[in-house]
Amino acid sequence: MADSRRWVMLGIGTAAQTAGTLYLYGLPFLLPALRRATGLPLWELGLLVACPSLGMVLALIGWGVLADRRGERLVIGLGLTGGAAFLGAAAHAAGPALFVLLALAGAAGSAVYAASGRVVTGWFAPGERGLAMGIRQTSQPLGVAAASAALPVLADSGGPRLALLVAAAVSALTGIVAALLLVDGPRPTKGPTTAASPGTGTDGARGRSPYRSPTLWRVHGASALLVVAQFVVGAYALDYLVTERGWPVRTAGPLIAGAQLVAAAARVLAGRWSDRCAQRLRPLRVIAAGTAAALGALALAEALHAPPAAPLLLIALVATVSWHGVAYAAVVDVAPASWAGRATSTQTVVQNVAATATPPLFGLAVAGLGFGPGFAVAALFPVAAVAVLHGLTVGAQPPARPVRVPAPDATRPAGRPVSGSAGR
Q1: Which domain holds residue 242?
Q2: Mean pLDDT of 300-319
Q3: DSSP code string of 130-168
Q4: Model's pTM, two decimal places?
Q5: When you count CB atoms within 10 A of the terminal residue's CB, does the N or C end of the chain come out lower?
Q6: CB-CB contact of 148 with 33 (8 Å)
C-alpha cells in the first residue's frame, strides 16, 4: 500500500495539471473561431492566446513559495478553482477585459504547475524521478490533445464562449477533487548535512540556494529555447493545417490530438531513458538535436509545397514536446528539496516567458515571410539549446528501495513511505 499510494498521488497531480493545461495551453485551438468572432488580426490573436502564459509568468514563483511552505493540496485546490472563476468570466467578456481575464485565469491556474512538481519530489526517490516527471509531464500533451479534439468542436457549435465555459467547469471539478484527495508529500527535515545526498541538491546543504551554481540557469535557458520551437508548432498547427493546407477543422483537430497522445508516451519513455542514463541531460541533448532536424525538414517541405509537410508537422509536434520530463527531473536533481517548488516554478516561468512571446512574434513572421521561413528560424532554437547544454553534467541516481518506518513520529502520518531519499 505504501508503494501504490505514491502512484495515486502522482495520478491526482497529473490529472490536476492536465485540467489546467486544457485552457492554459489549449486556447490556440480556438484561433479559427476567434478569427470569425472577433475579426482581430493574427498577431493580436496570438497575443490573446498567449495571455494565460503571461499570467503564469507573473504568478508562478509566488505559488512555488506557497507550495514549499503550505503544501501541494492547498495550492492546487485554490489555483484550479480560482482559474475556473476567471475563465468563466472571460467567456462573457470582450475587448481589453477578455485579455485581462485570460491573464488572470493563467495566473491562478499556474498554481498546479508549481505544486505538482512537489508531488514528485516528495513521494519519489531521485532514480525514479525521470519516470515520475515524465508521467507528470504527460499532462501537457494530454491536455492539449483534449483541447485540440474538443475545443474547436465546441466553438463550432456554440462559439468560443461555450468552449471557455466547458474548460472552466473541468478546471473547477478537478480542483475540488484534488483538494479532497491529494496528500502532501513529506517535507525536508531540519538540521545540517555533511555530504551531498539525494534530494538535497549539488551543494549538500538543505535550503541553500541552488542558483549560486550556473547549472540550473543553463537547464532553464535550454528549456526556454526548446519552448520556442514547441510553441511555434503547437500554437499554429491547427491554423496551418486549416488555412494553408485546406483541412477541415473536424479532421485537423483529432489528428493533432492523436499526435499529442504519441507525445505523451514519448515523454514517459524519455523520462525513463534519463533514469537509466549515467547522465540525465544526454537524452535532452539528443531530443533537442532531433527537434531541430524535424523543424528543418518541415521548413524545406513547406518551402517546396511538398505533400509530406503535414506529416512532418505532426512529427515535429511530437518531437517538440517530448523533452519536458527530462528537464524537470534534472531541475529537481540539482535543487535542494526545500527549493523544489521554487525551482520547478522558475523552470516553468522561464519557459512561459518564451511561450508568451512566441505566438505573436511568429504570427508577425508568418504575415511577412510565410510559414516556411518561420519554421526554418524556429529550427535554430533547439540547435542553440544543444550548445547551451554542451558539457553540462547532471547525474541520474539509481532508484532506492523503499524503507518502512518502524514507528510513526510526530511529523509523519502512519503509513507514509520513506524512500532512499528520506527527509525530502
Answers
A1: 2-185+210-389
A2: 85
A3: HHHHHHHHTHHHHHHHHHHHHHHHHHHHHHHHHHHHHHH
A4: 0.66
A5: N
A6: no
